[in-house]
Design goal:
By secondary structure, this protein is of the alpha/beta class. The chain contains 14 helices and 19 strands. The chain starts with 5 loop residues before the first strand and ends with a strand. The structure holds S-adenosyl-L-homocysteine, iron/sulfur cluster and FE3-S4 cluster.
Length: about 450
């Protein structure tokens, strides 16, 4: 390794959108001449791209930034930057600066694109560069992300969220909905397919409101236009808010083989009282109706979801309603969360915060149910052949891996030449969310 070579290391927390933001950060750092390095101890610049969706996401970041104190003392020329959703919260940048005075740069979500300038500003300057932009800027169309997840590529189609679910911090740290121009999204998709990417995932906090966020076409129209690009590839999207899920979207999924028959549709709760308090703008019956519409057009569609337990005021009966809804829909998998109070949100001021032991008991019961549904879905695969897009090699298992159209992870023996290609595997065994199989012609 030559001395002149400079390296970056990025630590990412939170959602897929943040993962993609880290790819944008990587793009900027590579333009500055840095190359990626796995060993954080050898990096010349370390960027923490943080999340604040739940308290434990923040605690992770605090712990990891704290661990760099010694390293920074030994290597004063190392630059440490902390950005993303956490510092974007009001007053949080100061908290971070006080707690970690050795951090060189603090920036938020709205000025992520200026990280390059901040790095230059920091060179030869002792004082930390702390820059938070309160208001969101216009959407950026000229990002040059350094994608790190071939054969999958993430494409941001819209930023921000207008929904203000009462528990959620995202609208406060990501600003209002802003959609990109469809022609730019389509051009990006076309160029990625041309580069050999096999799976494109369109990202937004609520992709269904592409048009109301200022987009020039509806979301299903955008999906259709991208699906019309020549070549074999898969198209996914996330996340959809149930209130905006439309029959037109169900028809687009049904009509375009490239759009995967799988949707992430976070329901959060099965209790109408709690859904109302969450400001979700649908009832459990509305949700079930949407699922019926979806399955009318796409009978085999896999539905995954997000669930929160322990929202303020949640009674045992409310929780039973959630369990009942989960069974009724038969989710193929679900992310389950214990409600985490976020300062500044409406729910933080609500009475009836739930004791930790109650939430813990509820989440354990919920996880058990979700796991049993997951196992049921996986068991149906045994003996079947399914098409997997090979994503890479799993060191731990010593097997290659990839997902099928419905999002199930399959593991099999192979070689590096398979990465990025569609492989048929016959499933011999189902193991929770994982399918174990062997390649067949
Ligand atoms: N925009 C997406 C997801 C946003 S965050 C959507 O609306 O679906 C991902 C998930 O985190 C949410 O669906 C929700 O289940 C969970 N979540 C958000 N805020 C939370 C909080 N304060 N406590 C616990 N879980 C939360
Ligand atoms: Fe948060 Fe609700 Fe917006 Fe999703 S839709 S990001 S849960 S406010
Ligand atoms: Fe977290 Fe920000 Fe995503 S709070 S979940 S990284 S939008």
């Amino acid at each position: 390794m030559s001395n002149a070579e400079r390296h970056y290391h990025i630590v990412t927390y939170g959602c897929q959108m943040n993962v993609h933001d880290s790819e944008r950060i990587a793009g900027m750092l590579s333009e500055l001449g840095y190359t990626q390095i796995d060993d954080i101890g050898l990096a010349d610049i370390v960027v923490f791209n943080t999340c604040c969706i739940r308290e434990n996401a923040e605690n992770h970041a605090y712990g990891n930034i704290g661990m760099l104190k010694k390293l920074k003392a030994a290597r004063r020329d190392m630059i440490i930057a902390v950005g993303g959703c956490m510092p974007q919260q009001i007053g949080k940048a100061d908290v971070l600066h006080k707690k970690f005075p050795y951090v060189d740069i603090i920036f938020g979500t709205h000025n992520l694109g200026k990280l390059k300038d901040y790095i230059e500003l920091k060179q030869g300057r002792k004082k930390a560069v702390i820059e938070i932009q309160e208001r969101e800027g216009a959407v950026t169309e000229d990002d040059r992300p350094l994608r790190t997840s071939y054969p999958n590529a993430w494409i941001n189609i819209m930023y921000g969220c207008n929904n203000f679910c009462s528990y959620c911090i995202v609208p406060y740290v990501r600003g209002r909905e802003r959609s990109r121009r469809s022609e730019n999204v389509i051009a990006e998709a076309r160029s990625l397919v041309g580069e050999g990417y096999k799976e494109l995932t369109l990202l937004g906090q609520n992709v269904n409101s592409f048009a109301s966020g200022g987009g020039d076409v509806t979301f299903p129209e955008l999906l259709r236009a991208i699906a019309a690009i020549d070549g074999k590839f898969r198209l996914r999207f996330m996340t959809s808010h149930p209130k905006d899920f439309s029959e037109e979207l169900a028809r687009a999924i049904a009509g375009e083989p490239k759009i995967c028959n799988c949707i992430h549709l976070p329901v959060q709760s099965g209790s109408d009282r709690i859904l109302k308090a969450m400001n979700r703008k649908y009832t459990s019956a509305d949700y079930l109706r949407k699922i019926d519409i979806l399955r009318k057009y796409v009978p085999d569609c896999a539905v995954t979801t997000d669930l929160i337990v322990g929202f303020p005021g949640e009674t045992d009966e409310d929780f039973r309603d959630t369990l009942a809804l989960v069974k009724k829909v038969g989710f193929s998998s679900a992310f389950t969360f214990v409600y985490s109070k976020r300062e500044g949100t409406a729910a933080a001021k609500m009475p009836g915060q739930i004791p930790e032991e109650v939430s813990k008991a509820r989440i354990m019961e919920l996880v058990e149910l979700v796991n049993s549904l997951t196992r049921e879905h996986s068991a149906k695969y045994v003996g079947r052949t399914c098409e997997i897009l090979c994503e890479g090699y799993d060191e731990k298992r010593g097997l290659y891996l990839g997902r099928d159209e419905y999002g199930r992870m399959g593991y099999f023996k192979g070689d590096d030449s398979l990465i990025g290609s569609f492989v048929n595997i016959r499933v011999n065994e189902a193991n929770g969310v994982s399918l174990m199989g062997e390649t067949v012609k």
